[in-house]
Amino acid sequence: MKVKELIQQLEMLSPKQYACSWDNVGLLLGRKDQEVKKVIVTLDVTEEVVRKAVEEKADFIVSHHPMIFSSLKQVNEDTVLGRKILTLIENKIACYAMHTNFDVMGGMAQLAEEKLQIENGEPLEVTVEEDGKLEGIGRVGDLKKEMTLKECALFVKEQFHVPSIALFGEEEKKIKRVAICPGSGKGMEIEALKKKADVLITGDIGHHNGIDALEEGLAILDAGHYGLEHVFMEFISNYLEEHCKELEVKVIDSKSPFHML
User: Fold this and answer.
1) Are both 111 and 198 inside the same structural domain?
2) Cβ-Cβ contacts under 8 Å for 181 (sequence gap 6 or more)
3) Is 0.85 topped by the overall pTM?
4) What is the CATH number of the domain that holds 160?
5) Tens digit of pLDDT for each residue in 186-227?
């Protein structure tokens, strides 16, 4: 299989046009006519992931977060990003990102909805409208049964396999309508309030955002950026194994950059 053929398969799931305008998705590095035999799936293209991809003799890395996000003026060994780019080029490893296009279509939002068993779900922030159908970032809807904020936190921990969650709000607060935005949800409390959610489940919530949300009557569960998005790796790995049987697919977990003591 060639890189361009693999890209076609990935974009059948999450077309590039669904990405937010500020994002940088697609083939970030590599030749489209290169042969692919082994694919690495990861959340972030860290130096460790690059090193392991070289050891695995991989041809292609697909990540959620783009390795190259902003414009570059130099590519050399003086920066972490420069070293990663040079190593990938030297070892003929292509690099592809599925970020907000995956969040919107075919992936993250739908996974979050399924894991929390949300009923009457709709996009939290609408970014696309096609033929009367709305798609967007995150999901909002109703839990199957009402629960307390503490019970909701424990449910999220179980469903997403996260070791800890920060609770903004009273543990006994009654929760029925939930909003979930995997990844960074700073600012999404505004959308959650518009949709009458009792709680926003997300990551990267700051001190002041949390205070403001609570004063507006919105509880928040912060499971961390990695905590809700790591499901990308298993999902894409399974997708490629099903649709590209000739490829060898391996997950290299980039892991959360921090842990709680």
Assistant:
1) yes
2) 124, 125, 137, 138, 188, 191, 192, 200, 201, 202
3) yes
4) 3.40.1390.30
5) 999 999 999 999 999 999 999 999 999 999 999 999 999 999
